Amino acid sequence: MSMDQTLIAGVDEAGRGPLAGPVVAAAVILDPARPIAGLGDSKAISEKRRASLAVQIRQYAWVGVGIAEPEEIDRLNILQATMTAMARAVRNLPRAPGHVLIDGNRVPVGLPCSAEAIIKGDATEAAIGAASIIAKTVRDALMLRAALRFPGYGFEGHKGYPSAIHRNALIALGPCPIHRFSYAPVRTALENR
What global pTM score does this model have? Predict the structure, then answer.
């Protein structure tokens, strides 16, 4: 994959805080000739609007996705797993960027080009906002599938985040294979079984 110095990729993640499921990162290179209106922090956009924007992003931009599964999160820790997912997302782009803008305050090691971290970049950089939307919609879809495989936890609603419903299900049912066993509430639920 040859690098195009003019291509800038935005990178963001979804799923650092949940007790279950993967952390998902996305890298997006926008096409300046085909702007997409309404990009921004996925958490500030309605689910319906996010879904619509995700379709446009996949249609008009280059997209790469990287995932770190719960076992990797437990083995590496959430920060390192997130950095790993971000690097995978960049490597999975169909075109190699010349520069990468990353939401947050850290840059993953091993990127194929220069990079900079931008705090709250999903609100200020369109490419990071696009990556935020892709990461969130991909992770939400994975958690809807998980809800079918592991009924009773309510993954379709809370998407693995530590809501009261999720914590109560964790206590009642114990952890399932997609829980993050290095997280204290999951460990506690396992120890109390």
Answer: 0.95
